[in-house]
C-alpha cells in the first residue's frame, strides 16, 4: 500500500457514507457541522414508540452544533419520531455541550475494554456450558431482570424516564432470546447455581480478528462467587480457538466489578463514549 493509502481509503469511505445518507434524506448540514438522523427499528419494535438515532458527525462549535441539532430535532418530528438517542465519543466536549444546549440529557457512560491473544491460550472452564434452545425463555427472563433493575444496571434505557419499564424489559429479553441460534450472537454461554441460570455471556466470533461480547450479566443473588470470571474465560477460550487476536466488551463506567474482571485477564481500556437522549414533545411543550 502506498504511504497514506489507508487514510485515503478511510476518506473515500466517509465520502461514500455521507452520499448514501444524503440520498436517504438523513443528513442535516450547515456551517455548524453535519448531523444524521434516522428511525431506529430495534428500539421502535421493542419499546413500542417511534424512536430514532441521531449521529453528530461534526460540530464545529458549541453554538453551531446546537443550532444544527435543533434543526435535526425538527426533522425527526416531521418523520413522526418521538424520541432520539445519540452516542458520542467521550472526548467530544464540543458535541456534548451542543447536545446539552439542544435539550438532550446524558443517559450513560461506556468504556470499551479489550484482551489481546496470549502466547498460550487457556482451557475452557469446566463450570460453563453453551446455551441451547431449551434455555431461551429462562435466559430471556434473567436478562430482562438484570438489565431493568435500578442499581443492578446503569444502561441508557433504564436511565431514561421517557422509556417504559416494560419496554426496557422487552429490549433485553428479546436480545437474550435472539442470542441463541439467532442474529444477536454466534454463541451464548451460561452458568447455573442450584438448578437456576445464574449468569450468561453472549459472543460474536471474530471478524477481522476481533471477537465481541455484546451482552453479559450475572444475577444479583449469585454475584461475588467468581461466575462472571468463568464466563469471560469461556468467551476468551472460544475466541482464541476461532483465531481471534482480540476480544472486546463494552460496559458501563460504573460497572467496576465487570471492569476488574477484564483487567485481571489482561484487559486494557480502548475507548469511552457517552449516550444522550431527548424526548420530542410538542413544540414549546414538555420535552420540546
From TrEMBL:
Superkingdom of origin organism: Bacteria
GO MF annotation terms: acyltransferase activity, transferring groups other than amino-acyl groups
Domain N-acetyltransferase: 126-288
Gene3D superfamilies registered for this protein in UniProt: 3.40.630.30
Name used for this protein in its record: N-acetyltransferase domain-containing protein
Species, as recorded: Archangium violaceum Cb vi76
Amino acid at each position: 500500500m502506498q504511504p497514506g493509502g489507508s487514510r485515503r481509503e478511510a476518506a473515500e469511505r466517509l465520502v461514500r457514507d455521507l452520499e448514501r445518507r444524503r440520498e436517504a434524506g438523513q443528513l442535516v448540514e450547515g456551517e455548524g457541522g453535519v448531523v444524521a438522523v434516522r428511525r431506529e427499528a430495534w428500539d421502535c419494535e421493542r419499546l413500542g414508540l417511534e424512536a430514532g438515532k441521531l449521529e453528530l458527525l461534526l460540530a464545529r462549535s458549541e453554538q453551531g452544533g446546537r443550532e444544527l441539532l435543533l434543526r435535526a430535532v425538527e426533522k425527526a418530528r416531521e418523520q413522526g419520531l418521538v424520541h432520539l438517542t445519540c452516542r458520542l465519543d467521550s472526548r467530544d466536549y464540543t458535541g456534548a455541550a451542543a447536545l446539552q444546549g439542544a435539550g438532550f440529557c446524558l443517559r450513560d457512560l461506556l468504556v470499551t475494554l479489550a484482551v489481546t491473544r496470549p502466547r498460550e491460550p487457556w482451557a475452557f472452564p469446566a463450570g460453563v456450558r453453551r446455551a441451547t434452545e431449551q434455555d431461551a425463555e429462562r435466559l430471556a427472563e434473567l436478562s430482562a431482570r438484570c438489565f431493568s433493575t435500578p442499581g443492578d444496571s446503569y444502561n441508557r434505557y433504564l436511565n431514561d424516564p421517557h422509556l417504559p419499564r416494560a419496554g426496557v424489559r422487552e429490549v433485553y429479553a428479546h436480545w437474550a432470546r435472539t442470542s441463541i441460534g439467532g442474529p444477536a450472537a454466534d454463541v451464548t454461554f451460561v452458568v447455573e447455581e442450584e438448578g437456576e441460570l445464574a449468569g450468561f455471556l453472549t459472543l460474536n466470533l471474530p471478524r477481522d480478528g476481533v471477537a465481541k461480547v455484546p451482552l453479559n450479566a450475572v444475577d444479583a443473588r449469585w454475584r461475588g462467587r467468581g461466575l462472571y470470571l468463568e464466563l469471560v474465560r469461556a468467551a476468551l477460550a472460544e475466541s482464541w480457538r476461532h483465531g481471534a487476536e482480540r476480544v472486546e466488551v463494552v460496559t458501563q463506567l460504573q460497572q467496576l466489578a465487570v471492569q476488574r474482571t477484564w483487567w485481571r485477564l489482561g484487559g486494557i481500556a480502548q475507548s469511552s463514549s457517552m449516550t444522550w437522549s431527548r424526548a420530542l414533545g410538542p413544540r414549546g411543550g414538555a420535552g420540546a
